[in-house]
Amino acid sequence: MHNVSIKDLKHFEGKNVEIKGWVYNLRNVGKIWFIILRDGTGLLQGVVVKGEATDKSFKLEHQLNQEDSVIVRGIVRKENRSIGGYELGVTEIKVINHVTSDFPISPKEHGADFLMSHRHLWLRSKRQNAIMRVRHQIVKAIRDFFDNNDFTLIDSPIFTGNAVEGTTTLFEVDYFERSAYLTQSGQLYQEAAATAFGKTYCFGPTFRAEKSKTRRHLTEFWMVEPEMAFVDLDENMTWAENLVGYIIQQVIENCFTELKALDRDIAKLESISPPFPRITYDEAVKLLIDKGSSFEYGNDFGAPDETLLSEQFDKPLMIHRWPSNIKAFYMKRDDLNDKLALGVDMIAPEGYGEIIGGGQREDDIDILIDRIRHHDLPLEPFKWYLDLRRYGSVPHSGFGLGLERTVSWICGTKHIRETIPFPRTMTRLEP
């Protein structure tokens, strides 16, 4: 008897196996009934025939409920019409735990609030299972990309004493009778790491106290943030587009079944490979106005603007050289125009918005001090950050890729809350 997972059944054709999992569905056809099993690796149809299964197992037809945990034994048979191309000729079913009430997540339509309140159970659904598997593959691809390109993983702290993206979106916490903040970004610490290791990255949760209820925002989300010494803006953009291209390649190669289950238009993903189109902020504004937008120069792009821009391209769009007054204090200015910052945003196709933000960092200590003061930030918390410019300062760049927005785009989801196991929003702190 072989104890196997559903995904490995193709290696056990004709063998007697044991599957441990949960009842996904049941159906009856005369003297034969079918049990659909899930075990976390896939779905399997088991065929229960009188005389082939034990009498006790055959009589379970009207006793089993959805999500009963079971151990099922039987013979693996090739069957092209079945899920995954194989089925199980059931000989025995052992019930581990019997569900005595109806499973809350039924095939009928449920409202978003109901599903979010039952997120711990909703994760078992076929669609959510597929999204989480794609997320897993994206995470793996990210780590493989950086590891294969000689980046060193350096973890940034969750508690910080200073802001990165702006003081209005900080989660403040009591830290032993002093104020601390949940990190908005690991970037500043990666800048320190890059001067020690050359090319580094961190990958973890970040927090933004944004009072936003859009389909693109969470208060807790994951970001991967590489930082590289001796790298300018143009080379930084090349790293960003190569990362996204590699992610797409790996997802298509390893998650084709999941993408099909999500009804994703895979052809749109297959067409995406570097290089990506690059335009300046000025060119993006002109494009918007040419398309009839009333956008005012000097503002940041909102969701409608990003969507309109993305509709003009079939690949992610990289927008660089932004007005310096809308970018962070640490962003280096363009030598040819001090009013422009050497920043870059990558906009995903199909209206999914910004998935990458980054740029070249200011490496001159005097200019950086002026920028901190200009933004009305205290110098004391940044003393260590200024040391990076005192001792061995070099041109350096980096970016942050938002994991959930990337998952949302690749999976084609309608809302970002589907892309993280347990989403946190303004109104959601549980389960």
The beta-strand count equals 18
Q: How many distinct folded domains?
A: 2
Q: What fraction of residues sit in β-strands? A: 25-35%
Q: Count of DSSP helices?
A: 13
What's the CATH H-level superfamily name of the largest domain? Bira Bifunctional Protein, Domain 2
**Average of the residue pLDDT scores:** 94
CATH names the topology of the largest domain as BirA Bifunctional Protein, domain 2
Give a quick account of the main beta sheet: strands, pairing sense, barrel closure.
9 strands, mixed
| Spatial gap, N to C terminus | 39 Å
Outline type: elongated
CATH architecture of the largest domain: 2-Layer Sandwich
Structural class: alpha+beta
Please tell me how large the radius of gyration is: 26 Å
Q: What is the percent of helical residues?
A: 25-40%
Under the CATH scheme, which class of the largest domain? Alpha Beta
Low-confidence stretches: none
